Amino acid sequence: VQLQASGGGLVQAGGSLRLSCAASGRTFSSYAMGWFRQGPGKEREFVAAIGRRGSSTYYADSVKGRFTISRDNAKNTVYLQMNSLKPDDTAVYYCASNTIGSIQTVDYWGQGTLVTVSS
Question: Which of 12, 49, 56, 64 could form a disulfide bond with 100, CB atoms 3.0-4.6 angstroms apart?
């Protein structure tokens, strides 16, 4: 199983980015997918997750109302639309398989994509 994340970059505070994570190696639609992030000197933390069919979504309080997770099962891809970005959102973002929020249930991780938000 491979998870290939992309879309990170440098953005000013208040700006937007969309992350993508393309999956391969097994039936994508059979697994909930999520995004986690790890900021400088911080532990990896949950950001957002989406159920297998895309009808259920879950968010950390810190990103509710600003981030939107979605998935396209035909393209084996999960997305994270990030709006109103803040410097505190600066982190390496990882996509993860088999989670609706718990880091313990993750069975595969993407390689991470760096998001830097300047003030």
Answer: 49
Count of Cβ atoms closer than 10 Å to residue 80 Cβ: 27
Dist. CA 9–CA 85, nearest whole Å: 12
The mean pLDDT value for 94-113 works out to 96
Q: Is 24 helix (H, G, I), strand (E, B) or coil?
A: strand
CB 2 within 8 A of CB 24: yes
> pLDDT tens for residues 7-65?
999 999 999 999 999 999 999 999 999 999 999 999 999 999 999 999 999 999 999 99
SS3 104: coil
**What sign does the dihedral 18-56-63-66 (CA atoms) show?**
positive
